[in-house]
Amino acid sequence: MQRYKDEEGDRVAGEEQAERGRLQDGLGGDPEPEGGDRGAALEEEERADKRSDPAHVPAVVGGEGGRGNLRELGVDDHLDRPEKTGVGGGDREVEDGESGHGGASEQGKTFTRGRNRAGVAVRDRLPLRRKLLSLLGVKEASSGNSGPVIEGSAVARMFGGIAGRYDRANRVLSGGIDRYWRWRTVRAVLRESPRRVVDLATGSGDIALALRRQLPAETTVEGLDFCEPMLEEARRKQGGRPGLRFAFGDCLALPLEDASVDVLTIGFGLRNLEDRDRGLREMRRVLRPGGALFVLEFSQPYAWLRPLYYPYLEKLLPWVAGRLTGDPEAYRYLGGTIRSFPRREVLAEQMRSAGFAAVRARALTGGIVALHRAEKGGGSPER
């Protein structure tokens, strides 16, 4: 029995040492998801997508079973393939019919100290990451609603105050990757072949303008926002381009008829809604049966990226944004909404509760951003 305990203790110590090594290197996670036979054309398209992502960098991944392969940090292009992430990503597959709770999500696990069957003490490995975040003065994000209080009129005033410098700040703060995120959204919309597209919370109109450039002339494109100074920026950028209309519109009370839109898009606006559930129900109301909603929004990054991302979000971003826009408080608020916004699988479940079906989520750039696609289902929203 003593020999068994000694061997078990050596094994546990070896596992702990390997885990520390991965955390110290800033790595972790499962190998990239397996994919089926997608055909030579789609494989070439995926390789082109990966090369186009500025944050798509290979990283060595360790793990059990000899998993020492390379994991690329970009994500799959197609929303119809479920996402697989594990310890590193903190997520599980997110697809229709799954809540995403439990499974491989480290936030869904309970890590406790105790002893194994051989009586050897087992240490909790999760606090290693928490200790690193603590040293940087950052608390780990939770899935609760502990973020800043969102009040619609205050949000409109805030965006109105930074409208003229909003685009420049976005380019600098994202390193230009925001253009790639919007490009992925527009390309996903093109697959729907819609006749009428409405971009909600359109802001300065980047997504709506890109849709107008890429969609056929017979497709109607509109951009709605509840902040007039931002709409003025969008109209200025439009420069008289035909086939595109910008107008006032509140996501909580859309000025659109029932079942009148083929595709809705909303980029980085859902987290600023005063009532997210009400907003999602409004979006479902105006979609035609089988119509699609695309939500491009910030999310919670993979575990290996959090020790770098959260300090940037809380400390560096407001400082840089303050120099660019003169309003660091606006970006402290925005950073708070990002930190408190739910993980991909949680948002997918909220969309299902609002009556959407066939919900898919795709992580982009290390999980910093996610692109959700959902269809208007035939059922009724949950009450």
Features:
7-stranded mixed beta sheet; 40% helix; 11 strands; single chain; 383 residues; two-stranded antiparallel ribbon; 16% strand; Rossmann fold; alpha/beta
Q: Work out the helix count.
A: 12
Report the top-level CATH class of the domain at 152-376: Alpha Beta
- Portion in beta strands: 15-25%
Low-pLDDT runs of 5+ residues are 22-39, 54-78, 80-94, 97-126, 135-145
Task: Explain what this protein looks like in three dimensions.
The protein has twelve helices and eleven strands. It is α/β, with parallel strands linked by helices. It has a domain at 152-376: 3-Layer(aba) Sandwich (Rossmann fold). The strands form three sheets. It has a seven-stranded mixed β-sheet, with helices on both faces. The longest helix has 23 residues, at 2-24. The model is unreliable at 22-39, 54-78, 80-94, 97-126 and 135-145 (pLDDT under 50).
Secondary structure blueprint with pairings:
Blueprint: H1 2-24, H2 40-52, E1 58-60, E2 70-72, E3 114-115, E4 121-122, H3 127-135, H4 152-162, H5 166-174, H6 177-190, E5 196-200, H7 206-214, E6 220-225, H8 228-238, E7 244-248, E8 261-267, H9 276-286, E9 287-298, H10 306-325, H11 328-340, H12 344-353, E10 356-364, E11 369-376
Parallel strand pairs: 5-6, 5-8, 6-7, 8-9
Antiparallel strand pairs: 1-2, 3-4, 9-11, 10-11
Helix pairs in contact: 5-10, 6-7, 10-11
